[in-house]
Amino acid sequence: MPLYLIRYSEIGLKGRNRAYFEKRLVENIRTVLKDKRLKPKIKRLQGRLLLDVDKEIDLKNIFGISSYSPCIQTKAELKKINSESLSLVKKNPKTKTFRISARRLDKRFALSSLELNNKVGAFIVKKTKLKVSLEKPDLEIGVEIINDKAFIFCKTLAGFGGLPVGVEGKALCLVSDKNSVLAGLLLMKRGCSIITVEESKIKNLKELDELAKTFKCRALIVPDTLQSLKDYPIDVPVLRPLIAFSEQEIKQELEKYKSIL
Predict the structure, then answer these.
(1) Span 110-153, pLDDT tens digits
(2) Which CATH architecture best describes the domain 170-256?
(3) How far is CA 192 from CA 15, 31, 216, in A?
(4) 0.85 exceeded by pTM
(5) Which of 59, 134, 139, 179 has its CA 20 to 30 A from that of 99?
(6) 105 CB-near residues (< 8 Å, 6+ apart)
């Protein structure tokens, strides 16, 4: 069964609320995978999540995840780490150069990150005669030490980062085109849950206040820019996440989120 080491960035800055943000991210991952008829096992680690799932999956579109790696888990012992790192090299037979990138998140582990880099790297050189390249290696092997475990991987996939959806309450999103969907996505990345409303079905803007009340939404998201600024005579606050974006910047953002749009 595939095992994934999941990293987040902004959640780690939330101090006393960190556990709440982590739990929300776990819930969001479970919801996405449940929709795919998967039954994941998720464990909270020191600054990481560990996901055990039935098959290979794409986690990129889950806000709150900065990156993730399919990984091997073993004991945090040098002999075990050497063995699993070597197995990854052997699974990539075209490799001529490599590097080890270790991170010791658990300071109880005897070796520093640099010392671990050197020892694992020396072991692989001895066993394979490959060369080390710190600048442009054919294969980069990551090693993260967390608690009494080592997680070893050779691929890191980027996520969209941000905050888990749902940690900042709910907002209505007035939808009419791709720009309005982008506006909603940008607020989702900041932790908002959104309720979409088709602009073409709204006859009177005051209906938005009623909808906000019904769905307990605290704001309205609109796609206004400086060139298309509108007035919304409603009671709930109006959020304009695209207000400072140029047309070119909006195109770049649409390209970035094309896997969701």
Answers:
(1) 999 999 999 999 999 999 999 999 999 999 999 999 989 999 99
(2) 3-Layer(aba) Sandwich (3.40)
(3) 19, 16, 12
(4) yes
(5) 59
(6) 46, 47, 48, 144, 145, 146
Domain residue ranges of the chain, discontinuous segments joined by +: 1-164, 170-256
Query: Which tokens sit at 146?
Result: 């967390």
Position 15 pLDDT exceeds 80: no
E strands in the chain: 3-7, 41-44, 48-52, 67-70, 72-75, 97-104, 131-132, 139-146, 149-153, 157-158, 170-175, 193-198, 220-221, 238-239
C-alpha closest to that of 101 among 56, 155, 55: 155
Answer yes or no: same fold for 1-164 and 170-256.
Answer: no
Structure tokens at 175: 């939808």
